Amino acid sequence: MNENITKRNELLAQTxxxxxxxxxxxxxxxxxxxxxxxIALSLIPEGGSVGMGGAxxxxxxxxxxxxxxxNYNFIDRDAAEDxxxxxxxxxxxxxxxxxxxxMTEDGILVNIDGNSNRVSAIAQGPKKVVFIxxxxxxxxxxxxxxxxxxxxxxxxxxxRFGLSxxxxxxxxxxxxxxxxxxxxxxxxxxxxxxxxRIHVILVNDNLGF
Length: 209
Known about the structure:
CATH class: Alpha Beta
Number of helices: 8
Mean pLDDT: 96
Strand order of the largest sheet: 1-10-7-4-2-3
Low-confidence stretches: none
Largest sheet: 6 strands, parallel
Radius of gyration: 16 Å
Helix content: 25-40%
CATH architecture: 3-Layer(aba) Sandwich
Number of strands: 10
Number of domains: 1
CATH superfamily: NagB/RpiA/CoA transferase-like
Order of helices and strands: HEHEHHEHEEEHEEHHEE
């Protein structure tokens, strides 16, 4: 990554980390994908159970493969015959791996979900939530984060899943009520009541959507 962009990301990440700390969440800055994976693995107990939603960023840094190969009980809903049972098992996991659709410079996380298994697990259930967040997801404020989630993340994900939504065709949110909509539940995480539950690893990279 360009040296000037890296310097900017380092400085911005410190602001975000301070914002997270003020919200009873823990932030980290990783200069590379490899460093981000090492930090994430240090937060997962040996032999612990690990679940996840559709976190592309966790895949992109190699974290999901590392967990599958390591000494962990990975709850693989994609491979499970009973996907609902796997989702329910995830709610009692030691660690939930996630990314975020967008976040603010002062540490607020914004997520949109269709089936809502991801946002519900972020809000309650798993003992620890570990977010992998590329610096491309950081927005100035909540309004900017909501716009990014709706006009960048949602259309790309709708296209990725082959859904017939207006945003998949236009590339922008149309505030639709389509049967295919993935914008069913909006979760704004502005504070964690439980200390040491939410951990956000900011990565000096463009990750996810």
